[in-house]
Design brief:
By secondary structure, this protein is an alpha/beta fold. The protein contains twelve helices and 15 strands. It has helices at about 40-50, 65-75, 90-95, 110-125, 140-145, 150-165, 180-195, 210-225, 240-255, 275-285, 305-310, 340-350, and strands at about 10-15, 15-20, 25-30, 55-60, 80-85, 100-105, 130-135, 170-175, 200, 230-235, 260-265, 295-300, 315-320, 320-325, 330-335. It has an eight-stranded parallel β-sheet. β11, α10 and β12 (about 295-300) form a beta-alpha-beta unit.
Length: about 350
């Protein structure tokens, strides 16, 4: 696989996690429950961490949400980020209650005086601030001048970068999210050319699990392959845990992360085994191995099956109601269809 040469951005630290420079691309997701509902929020945080999430963002809409941060921090082993709109005082309160990072929208955060107050508090604890530009909430003067374009997106970000730099603050991460793939790509490419700060990638409001995953994989995959991006979020109208799974698969597919890769044939008229059901069972059975650098082949016929299975670390090549188990290129068992998943799992466990 071709090695991706990533742009070396200025490192920042969210809690104990480095972002930028030579650090791995980090996976982020967002809670979809009320932050002040600590029981629900903690349950979701635990599920996201178990799925492999590395940064968690949540909305801070009022002081109850800000006060909940201290309790959420007690139950999270990964950094937490407060998402703030309209009121810089909520950002200050979030820092006071122990937040690891902030996301603010320059299109609605308020006056320079408010930002100055926020930066003064952030400096005390070196809390990174993400300047989060969104195509749906750009400053009116930039929309009037440029319309919905990369120029408007990037200028909105650079305005706020300039303000933070004037205040002597450089713990900055930036995003320029849009719901259109072309606008998102153009904006991030232009921004990457003009700043050295780490970038958070995302295609905002990408859609449901299937359509959103496809659009996000295209948009994020293109930029990551070009070496752009330090953190990513796959924004889906779905369970946030699914965002993490999709993000991990994008990174594994690009070779930016070691992980489990399942190769499964699409089936055709030659298939004489329940290949789709078999592949789903294998994926479910190996869910605890998602961070292992393993390639598993689930093939359904004698044309491509044996060859593909032999190229994988482990594999199944199906036949008429039965199949072969391969391990490291060698046939190790021939078993009935009903036993294939258990037999595959047994050989994987024995080798690890």
């Amino acid at each position: 696989m071709k090695e991706i040469h990533r742009k070396q951005t200025r490192p920042i630290y969210l809690g104990g996690v480095q972002i930028g420079a030579d650090a791995p691309v980090a996976i982020q997701s967002m809670l979809n429950v009320k932050t002040a509902d600590t029981e629900a929020a903690i349950a979701q945080i635990r599920r996201l961490i178990a799925a492999g999430c590395e940064l968690i963002r949540f909305s801070v809409m009022d002081m109850d949400d800000a006060r909940a941060i201290r309790e959420l921090k007690r139950h999270s082993s990964i950094p937490l980020i407060a998402d703030i709109h309209f009121d810089h005082k909520l950002a200050i309160a979030s820092i006071t209650h122990g937040i690891d990072g902030l996301r603010i929208n320059p299109g609605n955060i308020g006056s320079r005086q408010g930002v100055e107050s926020l930066v003064a508090v952030a400096k005390e604890r070196m809390i990174p601030i993400r300047i989060g530009v969104n195509g749906g909430s750009l400053p009116k003067d930039l929309l009037a001048r440029y319309g919905h374009s990369k120029e408007a997106m990037v200028e909105a970000a650079l305005r706020h970068v300039k303000l933070l730099e004037e205040l002597g603050y450089h713990e900055i991460k930036i995003s320029v999210k849009a719901s259109r793939v072309d606008l998102m790509l153009e904006s991030y490419r232009e921004l990457s050319r003009r700043v050295h700060y780490p970038l958070h990638l995302g295609l905002t409001e990408s859609g449901t699990l299937l359509s959103g995953s496809i659009k996000s994989a295209i948009a994020l995959g293109i930029l990551l392959e070009e070496g752009i991006g330090d953190t990513i979020r796959v924004s889906l109208s779905a369970d946030p845990v699914q965002e993490v799974y999709v993000a991990k698969q994008i990174l594994v597919a690009l070779g930016l992360r070691k992980g489990l890769s399942i190769v499964a044939c699409p089936t055709c008229g030659r298939t004489r085994i329940d290949l789709i059901g078999l592949a789903e069972k294998v994926e479910a059975a190996l869910s605890d191995y998602s961070d292992r650098e393993l390639t598993i082949a689930v093939m359904g016929c004698a044309v491509n099956g044996p060859g593909e299975a032999r190229e994988a670390d482990f594999g199944i090549a199906g036949g008429m109601g039965e199949g072969l188990i391969f391990a490291r290129g060698e046939i190790v068992a021939k078993v009935p269809e009903s036993d294939l998943v258990d037999e595959l799992l047994k050989h994987i466990q024995q080798s690890l």
